[in-house]
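Worked example 2:
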Amino acid sequence: MSEPIRIPAPEGVAPAAAYTHVVIGTGRLVAVSGQLALDEDGKLVGEGDAAAQARQVFENLRRCLAAAGATFDDVVKMTYFVTDMAHMPAIRAARAAHIPDDRLPAASAVQVASLVAPEFLMEIEAFAVVAP
């Protein structure tokens, strides 16, 4: 399968520093449900600590992608649900450990009033495209 085509800023659209505006992929779609900062035993990681939660969420995303035969290189879209936009720098730092700036997927960030339980600061979902 060929690499996804990334269009960081289409003509007439302002460039974005933290995501790619358009990502085109061909192949099999992999949808990864929103991941929380839970370890493999279902215990919260990083209560009150956005950086620790972000690292765990990205590790969970990595494991889910691997189960589908995908990697972060195959991710074309991510959605970040955060209880406070102040957590975005921690998310970007955790993401940088897995996705280089020149391979950023399309993305949306949404601040929500709450997640499934109050101790969760973020939930992140991903869509990837892999060879059929």
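The beta strands are 5-7, 22-24, 28-35, 75-82, 106-111, 122-130. The chain has a mean pLDDT of 94.
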